[in-house]
Design goal:
The chain has one domain (5-52). The chain is built from 2 helices and no strands. It has helices at residues 14-26, 31-52.
Length: 53
C-alpha cells in the first residue's frame, strides 16, 4: 500500500493517481524513474487544476 492508494478510488483524482502510485512503488527499484513519474503526476495535476479554474 502506498500513500496515494486512497486516490485510486476517487474519480476526481483519477488523472494522476495511477502515476503517483507507480512513482512511489518504483522508488526503491529505480529512483530516476520515480522522479520522472513524480514529475508526470505533478504535470497532470497542474493541467487538470488549470482547466478547472
Amino acid at each position: 500500500m502506498t500513500n496515494f492508494d486512497i486516490f485510486l478510488s476517487e474519480p476526481k483524482f483519477a488523472s494522476f493517481a495511477e502515476v503517483a502510485v507507480s512513482a512511489e512503488r518504483i522508488l526503491q527499484i529505480d529512483p530516476a524513474a520515480c522522479v520522472l513519474n513524480c514529475r508526470r503526476a505533478m504535470d497532470i495535476t497542474v493541467l487538470v487544476a488549470k482547466r478547472k479554474i
